[in-house]
Amino acid sequence: MTQRPFTLADLEALRQWDTPTICNGLELVAPERRAIGFTVEPMVAADRKLPPIVGLARVGTLRAREAPRGKVASRLDWYDYVAEADLPSVVVLQDLDDRPGYGAFWGEVHSTVHKALGALGCVTNGSFRDLDMLAPGFQIIGGRIGPSHAHVHLVDFGRQVNVFGMQVAHDDVVHADFHGAVVVPADAVRRLPEAIDLITRREKVILDVCADPGFTAARLRAAVQRSGEIH
Q: Total domain count for the chain?
């Protein structure tokens, strides 16, 4: 088993916060990543009511607009690759087509298959379909919704991908919800809860002043000066 600076319990703990809050925490514990490591385009969630997903990245690329012109990645080998994760996973698939999402890899069958393989969900710039038939609890954060799978096929897997500006490598920790997704550095996983607690306490000072019937701009100024940077 791979040695990591975090456990399953540490990953599960991060599911209590939405992805923007995780990004806020990373600004404290990994300030060098303040402007990198997250999706930067609007995305569509299969189910906004599902909780955030956090897991080890299983990465791959696909195309769908045209039939394969050469060798393609084996879908069965891909399944083995996803299944090999020793912790829950998040599949991250980059659609390489000039028009990403022309055909959907994700739908009833693949959501069910990947849930059985241990994946909590996926993040993709491609499309998905079968909204009423997706595997229960399997979250999809995608670029669009579409009706057909066209010529969808895997091109490669296991190599770094880029989904809407978020570069993801094999085994990276990915946190995602209906806002989008972010890569969490391995050494930041256990430091995030304390950072988020600090941010929450800072924000509460501001929120309490704004909710007070005696609110004034002067009181807000004083509260901001006491609390430090807020978001």
A: 2
